[in-house]
Structures are given as C-alpha cells and as structure tokens.
Design a protein that fits this description.
single chain, 13 helices
C-alpha cells in the first residue's frame, strides 16, 4: 500500500510541477492595447462592452463589415482593409471575448447573441445595410445575421465558414476536463506559445507562411483578460441545430474556401453553394482555413470582382 501512496504522490508532484511550468497569467489589458491598438483603432461602448474597432475609408461609401473567426482578431483583416478602404467604408472589430474587446457579461456565446451584437454594432455606427464578410466562426455569425435580419445585409462573403454539424463527436479531452469546475480555472491559465504556433500551422495551407510575428500576435491577444474563459464557453455552447436556415439566405453570396482546410472541410463549401441560391463558389487549391490571411493579395482580386457594381 505504501508503494501505491508513494507512486501517487510522485505522480501528483509531476503534475503540479508541469502545471507550474506551463502556468501563464493574463497579460494586462493596457499593455496589450498599447502594442496592438495603434491608430486607427478605437474603443467604443456597445451593449455595455468596450469593443476594439476600426472604421476606415469614406463614411459615405458602401460599408463592408469584416467579422473574424474563433480566437482571432480584427488584425486578420489588415491587408484587406488597406486594399479596400480607398473605395469602401471598412469596419473591422474584435468580437466580444476575443482580441482586445470585453467578454459578454452574461457569458452567452450562442450565435443568436452574436447576431444581436452585430445588429447593435450596425446601429451604433448608423449603418443601415452592409456587406458582411466573415471568416470561420465569423462566417457563421454573418450568415446567421443574413438569415435573421435580411434587411441589414446587402451582400455576404463566407470564408471557410462554419455552419454544418460535423460528422461524429468533436468533443475534445480538454473541453471534457474544462467542464469540471475545479479544473476549469487551471485550464484557463495554461497556454504555451508552441500550442498557438501549432494551431496556426495547422490552419495554414503552407505552414512556412506562419511567421514568428504572427504567432506573437495570436499568442499575446489570447492572453487578454477573459479571452481564454470565453473560448471555453464558446466551445461549450456551440450548436449547429439551425443549419437548415442557411437555405433562407437570399442575398448575393460569395463563398471562398481553402482546399487544404483541415478544420472545416471543402465539402462544406459545396453544401453552402448548393443551399444558398445563386451563390458563387471559389476554391483556392493551395490555401488552408484562413485564405484571406495566408494570401491576402491572391484572394483580393476575387473579392473585388464580387464587390464590383
């Protein structure tokens, strides 16, 4: 029996030591803002939250609203925003619980709450109708907004968007452990830079395009207060029970996809194309889950063609 006690104690000691080595506290929000929110960034109050926002281009130009994906930020759109703001009003922002924005105070990360947030943002900016451009989860929010509030959406661009239930059970061991209250606070404080780097390399079609600067940005913003907790809650609350509403989308839609996407299969692009009447589909053979970020120049021409009057 004593041997088992000694072995258990040794095992626990190893676990405690590993947690201590991997323990990563939040970064102070003011320091992150100083580095990652230069002009034209600003912070606006929407639904009681401080939201990191950039509103570029001519105010009376056709508005484009860019919505990033899970654990990303408005920075993913910087090359596109620079290319588009001479002709359009380009709005990009950090979703609640991501980047430099506050988290939802009620911990509600269901897509319906995101739709309410997007419409509140449009109201705040006095935008009646806009072209919504969404990547991954941002695409999910974009098409859900088009389905729920068609009077607010002029056109739609879906980039490797989420929308259809995955085959099988995607619950991860990490998420299962996070459901245990005593472990959640530990998991929320453990994040290695190598973990973020590995995720980005899996998201890109060509991992060689993942630079140290890119990893730094994703890693540091992941440590913004509240973001890791928000990410766990988003994953817990994620549901695709409403996927049949995709067929109700009735605005001009461009579907852009990376054929090498390891997160949302290209088969989903074909499903979007079938379900949204009159949509256009463009697949980039050498790109992954973030084609607009991985190759902004190569993807921009397709977007310009779609946006042209």
């Amino acid at each position: 029996m004593n041997r088992w006690i000694v072995a258990l104690a040794a095992g626990l000691a190893i676990i405690v030591a590993a947690v201590a080595l991997a323990w990563t506290p939040d970064r102070p929000a003011d320091l992150l803002r100083a580095r990652w929110a230069p002009a034209p960034s600003k912070f606006v109050k929407i639904a009681g939250m401080d939201i990191h926002l950039r509103d570029e281009g001519r105010r009376n130009a056709p508005p484009l609203v860019l919505i990033h994906g899970t654990a990303s930020s408005l920075h993913t759109w910087e090359p596109w925003a620079a290319a588009l703001n001479g002709r359009y009003r380009v709005v990009s922002f950090d979703l609640p619980g991501a980047g430099l924005s506050d988290a939802f105070p009620d911990d509600d990360y269901r897509v319906e709450n995101y739709v309410r947030f997007v419409t509140a943002l449009l109201d705040h900016l006095e935008i009646g109708r806009a072209t919504l451009i969404g990547s991954s989860k941002g695409g999910r929010i974009a098409w859900a907004t088009a389905a729920a509030a068609p009077d607010r959406v002029e056109r739609l661009v879906l980039i490797d968007a989420r929308g259809y239930p995955a085959k099988g059970d995607e619950s991860s061991l990490l998420l299962s452990l996070a459901r245990i209250p005593v472990l959640r606070s530990v998991i929320e404080r453990i994040t290695s830079r190598s973990f973020i780097e590995k995720g980005l390399m899996e998201a890109y079609g060509d991992p060689a395009r993942v630079t140290p600067e890119l990893v730094d940005r994703y890693y540091e913003l992941h440590l913004h207060p509240g973001n890791r907790r928000a990410l766990l809650l988003q994953t817990e609350q994620e549901s695709y029970a409403d996927w049949k509403r995709i067929g109700s989308v009735a605005v001009p839609t461009l579907i852009m996809w990376g054929r090498l996407d390891r997160r949302v299969p290209v088969e989903d692009a074909e499903r979007f194309h079938r379900d949204i009447a009159g949509s256009r589909l463009l697949v980039f053979d050498r790109l992954g889950h973030l084609p607009h970020e991985e190759d902004p120049g190569g993807t921009m021409s397709a977007l310009r063609d779609f946006l042209a009057p």
